[in-house]
Amino acid sequence: MVAMFAVSVGYSIVLPILPFLVERLTGTADAATLSRHTGLLTGTYVLAIFLFAPLWGKLSDRQARRPVILLGLTGFATTFALFALFESLPLLYLGRFLAGLFAAAVAPAAYALVGDRARSKEWRAYCFTLLNVAATAGFFVGPLLGGLVLRVSRETALGGGKEFFLVPFLAAAGLALVAALMIWVFVNEATQRRTTEAAARIDKPNKQTIILRLEAIAFVGALAIGAFEVGLSLRGKQTLGMDAYQIGMMFAECSIVMLVVQALVFSPLIKPDVTRWFLTPSLVVLALSLVLVPLLSGYIATTLAVALIAASAGILPPIVTFWASLVAGKTQGADLGRITAAASFGQAVGSAAGGLLFDISFLPNATFNAAAIIVLTGVAASLGLPRLLVPRHHPGNAGIPAKRSRST
């Protein structure tokens, strides 16, 4: 949980300050320049995750989960410490790419390590919920801290100099090192990797179909979030006149709503099997909410629309990850790496497109509307998926290791 939290903080702490950091490094307040670099810098980070998450996941299958997590955290911390010293835009891009490269190691290996120990479907769902909640909590703390630092810098006589950009980066680096130390001391490798009944009963072609569909859902959901994050940051600064702290509060609201829905989706109130039916409705609500956001100008109305997006988008990752892990079997690391890569690629595309489309005058609200259209195309991937995940002949106890009969 601490490892997932640390990586999320490292990613999200930069979101509310990126436009201001780009403005300082480029020496211009041109809206098109800020939009372009904000989107591309955000996309660079998640693009690195897309490229390297499957490789890290496959490595954890072949070797071990714990060393992969440790390498990812220490590399992430080192990169962020160096990132704080970068004083040019090209180095800023390099730092974001390297941070994403090492961050890509953490999530697939962490989920797979927990999956290796899963003794029941309910246990797996509960622990995956904790990991998702920890990651979402990081998204809450990161933007809040980043926005708060800039507000303090602008309200003091010292101004918004380099020293105020150092603080959040060094804090994220320190947190990642603490997480690595805790993994080193407290986490041991599972002595035996379990294979669920869900994985055993699904033949290879169907398994590949399921993973591909889950990847598609992860992709469109993350694309929507990527475009929304950049669009919200730019719209807050350029259209609604918000400062970095207010933008950070918007991101914090997203994280709180996501925390609530993720805690509920795999709570004792909802059986794990039922969660597969939430995929299609969530995608539809997400698409409609994206269309709604740019049509609102008031702070309270925008806040309500943001909450709808956070709820519908926040419910997707834990469900997708849970079912991918359940059907993966012995290739958990590789398959969860593919899910992570699909989500990261979607976020990279969404972030880059969100920045590039934001200031196109002949396509009003293009950032939000284009993301909504792509999310609606993802609905097709979710149709019929619940029946593939739990075939009709299944007695309903997937995830519980089968007991041997006396005759065997």
What is the residue-averaged pLDDT?
79
Give the number of domains. Answer: 1
Residue windows where pLDDT falls under 50 for at least 5 positions? 393-408
Q: Strand-and-helix sequence, N→C?
A: HHHHHHHHHHHHHHHHH
Strand segment count: 0
Q: Percent helix among the residues?
A: over 70%
Number of helices: 17
Which SSEs are present, and which pair or pack?
Elements: H1 2-12, H2 18-26, H3 31-62, H4 65-83, H5 89-103, H6 106-117, H7 121-155, H8 162-186, H9 197-201, H10 204-239, H11 244-265, H12 279-292, H13 299-314, H14 316-328, H15 332-357, H16 366-382, H17 385-389
Helix pairs in contact: 1-4, 1-7, 1-8, 2-3, 3-4, 3-5, 3-6, 3-10, 3-15, 4-5, 4-6, 4-8, 6-7, 6-15, 7-8, 7-11, 7-14, 10-11, 10-12, 10-14, 10-15, 10-16, 11-13, 12-13, 12-16, 14-15, 15-16
Structure in words:
The chain is mainly α and 408 residues long. The protein has one domain: Growth Hormone, Chain: A. It is 76% helix and 0% strand. It has 17 helices and no strands. It has helices spanning 2-12, 18-26, 31-62, 65-83, 89-103, 106-117, 121-155, 162-186, 197-201, 204-239, 244-265, 279-292, 299-314, 316-328, 332-357, 366-382, 385-389. The longest helix has 36 residues, at 204-239. The two termini are 40 Å apart. Mean pLDDT is 79; it is low at 393-408.
Put the structure in a nutshell.
The chain contains 17 helices and no strands.
List its traits:
Growth Hormone, Chain: A; disordered C terminus; globular; single chain; mainly alpha; 408 residues; 17 helices
